[in-house]
């Protein structure tokens, strides 16, 4: 799947916004209830996987009919969340990029665990992001361009104990060879001056969170 994008739709908060993030060329993975979302919106998952403990027997029948392939596992005898299973499936196929939809929601533990999955993507050299109605989350360890798109704010938070040598270009609030440490809010709510900017850093793992307020 070199050159392709894999989109994982999982069982967190979903809506019409998620459909707008999906392109015809994407490889679609439905994770647990995310597969039902895809099927019910007229989209065909290339694979539906998980323990499917959040769907009824009737809903599971819909998923089986509407998906190209279904990989179900025992809900008790497993060590991964459904989203992590889908993410591992995607990593094995070495795509150009992976997008997670429905990976944020009311369960903060699952949301935070899904953010941590970005570290696995980075370790495999695959561009990964989590997108919801108001946010896009990425993890970087090297100079990275940022474009405005539909987002009004850019926040930077360290995922490692500290991130050193942060220099910002094209931002309202510049940083020059700065260090961000866990617990600091210095990187919150910056703004691009134009349509794009650049984040440079020397070491560490940096979460880049682009966000906008609900309409």
Automatic annotation (TrEMBL):
<keyword id="KW-0547">Nucleotide-binding</keyword>
<dbReference type="GO" id="GO:0030975">
    <property type="term" value="F:thiamine binding"/>
</dbReference>
<keyword id="KW-0418">Kinase</keyword>
<feature type="domain" description="Thiamin pyrophosphokinase thiamin-binding">
    <location>
        <begin position="149"/>
        <end position="207"/>
    </location>
</feature>
<dbReference type="GO" id="GO:0016301">
    <property type="term" value="F:kinase activity"/>
</dbReference>
<dbReference type="InterPro" id="IPR007371">
    <property type="entry name" value="TPK_catalytic"/>
</dbReference>
<dbReference type="InterPro" id="IPR053149">
    <property type="entry name" value="TPK"/>
</dbReference>
<dbReference type="GO" id="GO:0009229">
    <property type="term" value="P:thiamine diphosphate biosynthetic process"/>
</dbReference>
<dbReference type="GO" id="GO:0004788">
    <property type="term" value="F:thiamine diphosphokinase activity"/>
</dbReference>
<dbReference type="Pfam" id="PF04265">
    <property type="entry name" value="TPK_B1_binding"/>
</dbReference>
<keyword id="KW-0808">Transferase</keyword>
<dbReference type="InterPro" id="IPR007373">
    <property type="entry name" value="Thiamin_PyroPKinase_B1-bd"/>
</dbReference>
<dbReference type="InterPro" id="IPR006282">
    <property type="entry name" value="Thi_PPkinase"/>
</dbReference>
<dbReference type="InterPro" id="IPR036371">
    <property type="entry name" value="TPK_B1-bd_sf"/>
</dbReference>
<keyword id="KW-0067">ATP-binding</keyword>
<dbReference type="GO" id="GO:0005524">
    <property type="term" value="F:ATP binding"/>
</dbReference>
<dbReference type="InterPro" id="IPR036759">
    <property type="entry name" value="TPK_catalytic_sf"/>
</dbReference>
<dbReference type="Pfam" id="PF04263">
    <property type="entry name" value="TPK_catalytic"/>
</dbReference>
<protein>
    <recommendedName>
        <fullName>Thiamine diphosphokinase</fullName>
        <ecNumber>2.7.6.2</ecNumber>
    </recommendedName>
</protein>
<dbReference type="GO" id="GO:0006772">
    <property type="term" value="P:thiamine metabolic process"/>
</dbReference>
